[in-house]
Amino acid sequence: MKRKMLWVWLALLILVSAMVAGCGKGVSTSGSPAASSPEAPAQNQSAAQANAHWPSQWPSDVPRFTYGTITSNIGDSAVEFKNVTPVAFNKYQSDLKKAGWTMKLAVQSANGAFTIIATKGQRSVATTQVTSTPGNPELSGSVVYTPAAGQ
């Protein structure tokens, strides 16, 4: 059961990361002139970034991911990042281990993209960071916290 949950989270993280990497590509808007102006997406993105934060309701034993820029929150369960470098792979694993988390999966590709899944009891923390441009060392992705069932 635990192994199945781990693979479900991995698939979810890959899906979310792919969506994050593709956000805004090939999307057209219609409607009011303000919505279709070139400034509107930048204003909306700036507003989302201004409100983006590390969730205060996450337990203190979930280490803050400080290796990129927070771009948005996905409800109370995930935080999206950009400007992440591949060295974050080893650094965040170290942070998690120091906080008592057990690594269930930690993989990094040749281009620096990585996925980490850690558990503590029935809780989990997972991050997937991917590159959207070949040859670009900057990564983007998310950190997801899953509380134990019933919490």
Can you put this structure into words, describing what you see?
Residues 6-13 and 15-42 have low confidence and may be disordered. A hairpin with a 2-residue loop joins strand 4 and strand 5. The chain has one domain. The protein has a six-stranded antiparallel sheet, sandwiched between helices. The chain has helices at 2-22, 33-36, 39-51, 88-98; strands at residues 69-74, 78-84, 102-108, 114-120, 123-130, 139-146. The chain has 151 residues and is of the alpha+beta class.
Count of domain modules: 1
Number of helices: 4
**Side-by-side strand order of the widest sheet:** 1-2-6-5-4-3
Q: Which band does the percent of strand residues land in?
A: 25-35%
Summarize the structure.
With 151 residues, this protein is of the alpha+beta class. Helix content is 32%, strand content 28%. It contains four helices and six strands.
Properties at a glance:
single chain, six-stranded antiparallel sheet
SSE order and pairing:
Layout: H1 2-22, H2 33-36, H3 39-51, E1 69-74, E2 78-84, H4 88-98, E3 102-108, E4 114-120, E5 123-130, E6 139-146
Antiparallel strand pairs: 1-2, 2-6, 3-4, 4-5, 5-6
